[in-house]
Structures are given as C-alpha cells and as structure tokens.
C-alpha cells in the first residue's frame, strides 16, 4: 500500500507525521510519499519541495503568492500521477489542497482523495463546503458541528477530534526552571510569535513590543520564546535586537516543559494556543493580517466572533483576543500584566480553559489513531 501525504504548513506537517506513525503500526508494509516538512522527514518521507513559500495567510497575501501556489500545485499533481499512490491525503491548508485535489482528478488520478482537517466553514465562507465536496472523496474533520455543512453536498465525513488534544503530555515546568537556572519564584512570560514567515513579519514585532513592556513592569521577569521550526532562524536573528532578558527554545522536546513553566503566555493565534492551554497556562492571544484582507474578511466572510478555538468552543472570550485594530503592544501588555498580577484572574481563566478543553473532547481516543484507521479503511483493496 502506498499513501501520498501533502502538508503545506508546519501544523499540517506535524499532524501528518502523527497519522503516518499510527498507520505504520496498523499497516506496517505501507510506503509513504509526499510533500511536507521536518516532522514528515523524521517519519522517512522525503518532500518533493520546500513548503515554506506556501505558508501564507490572508486574501491579498494569497493573491500575491498565487503564481507560486499554482506552480506547486502542478508539481504536486504530476508527482502524484507519476507515483500512482493508492490514496492521497491532503492535510489542512485549504486553498492549496482543494486545487491539488482538483488537478489530480483532471490529470486522471482515480484513487481516493482524503482531506484531513476541513476549512473553518462555521467561521467564514460556508460555501467552501460545496467546493470541497466537489473535489475530495472523504473528509476527516475535527468537530461534530462541521458535519451538517457537508451533508447537503454528499461528502462523507469522519469526526476525529482535535489533534492538539493528543499532545497533552504534562510538561515538567519545575524541571525546566531548574534546567535553565530559573528560581521557582522567577516570573516567566511565554512568547509565541508564530510559525509562518508572514507572521514573523506582521505579528511578531507587536508581540515583542508587548513583551518588552511586560519586562519594564516586571523587572525580575524573564521571557521564554519557543521558536517553531520553520521560523527558528528568523526568530534567533530578531532576538538580537530584543531589549529584554530572554531565552530562545528551539528544542521540540522542551516545548511542553516551557509551556508548563510559564506564568502567562503571549501568543500568536494558532494551534499552539490549545497546546498551551493543555499545560494549564493562561494566555493572551493576538493576530493581524493585511488591511485589505481584513476589510474583506470582516465585512463579507467572518461569521464567528472569535478566532481562538477555545473561545469558539466556549462561545465566549475566555482567552483575551486582540485582533487587527485591537492588536497593539499596549493593549496586549496590559492584558498580560492584569493576568500576571491577579492570581484569582489566572485561576478563573485556567478553569474556563479547562472547561473548553473538555468540551472539545480532551481525554478521548487520539484523533491521529481515528484518522489513521479511517485512511487505511478507505484505501481500495487490491485484487489478486
């Protein structure tokens, strides 16, 4: 059995690697091919090309990257046709993946096209459900409430739960502090500036300024920045200009420990917010995209009040969000300091985060295992 995985962004790359690992235990003779990053490479999957130029966000940003996307779609589709896998699994990255699914079908590929994680149709552009249904054969989605969006269009779906909930090994916060010579009483601010190159340009500078304001107020505090793999070099370079005491963590094995060690986190919106909440650390979240993209999204596309998944699940702003017009260093720093100086507020937010995590399915069967078993089930049985 040959399965071709396509993962264009860091979060998709990680999820793909987790599912591949599970498939190996279910069907050990499976061969894996595809497009991905460092996590898939660790599973022995050589990537067709470097995916970093596909990690873009925003409508205008997507338009600017269109030529690159189109080129990569063609390369991926033709590689799939040449390799003739028994199934193709397209992970996250809505815009790129539906185009790959469409193109491989046009070129004559007849195997199942499986989409792993659907677009957030409940938040923006519900019409994407119809588009996805026209170009893939099965969807592995996160939430039960996604299914009704696809039912009218005949797309079969399997709910696997939130992948971030499987990454909940309890971090050793005390051990992390001792390893890096921090006292138990040392205030630690966790800084998470993003995993896309575009986020390092648009989001990171404001988060860095907020961290500096935190350090001015909490003079004995330290900032711990966990740098995501694809942007580690960029963050290390940026850190040379930081005017606050900091420690850069690039070791993936220390990530959970760093999350657990922090008193408060200041994070770019993304999957990482759920991972931090799983360690019992309260967060403040921020995000920004290009202004033209924002105006179009806000006026015509956005249906949800929130972008942080825990807030969406809770139906309330349990984690402070500072998006676009509210995304300023002063507002972020104020929210972080209010949490830091108010233990009761910290406890209340952690409680609400835990309730949201329970609502999202924490403690259930691993999503990677559910996805792996369904993918194997969907692969056609070869005769003879």
Automatic annotation (TrEMBL):
Domain of life: Bacteria
UniProt keywords, alphabetically: Glycosyltransferase, Lipid A biosynthesis, Lipid biosynthesis, Lipid metabolism, Transferase
Coiled coil spans: none
Alphabetized Pfam families for the sequence: LpxB (PF02684)
InterPro entries, per the entry: Glyco_trans_19 (IPR003835)
Reactions the enzyme catalyzes: a lipid X + a UDP-2-N,3-O-bis[(3R)-3-hydroxyacyl]-alpha-D-glucosamine = a lipid A disaccharide + UDP + H(+)
E.C. number(s) listed in UniProt: 2.4.1.182
Residues annotated as signal peptide: none
Family: Belongs to the LpxB family.
PANTHER family xref list: LIPID-A-DISACCHARIDE SYNTHASE, LIPID-A-DISACCHARIDE SYNTHASE, MITOCHONDRIAL-RELATED
Record's function text: Condensation of UDP-2,3-diacylglucosamine and 2,3-diacylglucosamine-1-phosphate to form lipid A disaccharide, a precursor of lipid A, a phosphorylated glycolipid that anchors the lipopolysaccharide to the outer membrane of the cell.
Protein name (record): Lipid-A-disaccharide synthase
Organism: Hirschia litorea
């Amino acid at each position: 059995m040959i399965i071709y995985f396509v993962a264009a962004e860091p979060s998709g790359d990680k999820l793909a690697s987790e599912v591949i690992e599970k498939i190996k235990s279910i069907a050990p003779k499976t061969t894996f091919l595809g497009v991905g990053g460092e996590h898939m490479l660790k599973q022995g999957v050589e990537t067709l090309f470097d995916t970093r130029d596909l990690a873009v966000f925003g409508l205008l940003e997507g338009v600017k990257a269109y030529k690159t996307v189109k080129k990569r779609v063609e390369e991926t589709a033709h590689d799939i046709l040449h390799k003739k896998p028994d199934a193709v699994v397209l992970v996250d990255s809505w815009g790129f993946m539906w185009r790959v699914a469409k193109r491989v079908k046009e070129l004559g590929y007849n195997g199942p096209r499986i989409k792993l994680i659907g677009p957030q149709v409940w938040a923006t552009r519900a019409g994407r459900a119809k588009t996805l249904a026209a170009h893939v054969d099965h969807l592995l989605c996160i939430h039960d409430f996604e299914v009704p969006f696809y039912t009218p269009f005949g797309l079969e779906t399997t709910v696997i739960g939130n992948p971030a909930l499987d990454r909940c090994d309890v971090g050793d916060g005390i051990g992390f502090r001792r390893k890096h010579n921090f006292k138990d009483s040392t205030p630690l601010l966790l800084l998470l500036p993003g995993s896309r190159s575009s986020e390092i340009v648009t989001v990171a500078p404001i988060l860095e300024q907020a961290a500096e304001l935190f350090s001015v107020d909490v003079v004995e505090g330290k900032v711990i920045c966990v740098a995501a793999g694809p942007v580690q070099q960029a963050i290390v370079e940026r850190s040379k200009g930081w005017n606050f005491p900091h420690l850069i963590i690039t070791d993936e094995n220390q990530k959970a420990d760093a999350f657990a060690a922090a008193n408060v986190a200041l994070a770019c919106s993304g999957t990482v917010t759920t991972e931090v909440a799983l360690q019992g650390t309260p967060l403040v979240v921020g995000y920004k995209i290009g202004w033209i993209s924002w105006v179009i999204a806000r006026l015509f596309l956005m249906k949800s009040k929130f972008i942080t998944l825990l807030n969406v699940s809770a139906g309330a702003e349990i984690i402070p969000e500072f998006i676009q017009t509210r995304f300023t260093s002063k507002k972020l720093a104020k929210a972080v300091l209010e949490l830091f100086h108010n233990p009761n507020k910290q406890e209340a937010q952690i409680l609400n985060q835990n309730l949201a995590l329970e609502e999202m399915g924490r403690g259930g069967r691993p999503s990677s295992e559910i996805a792996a078993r369904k993918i194997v089930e969907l692969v056609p049985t070869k005769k003879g």
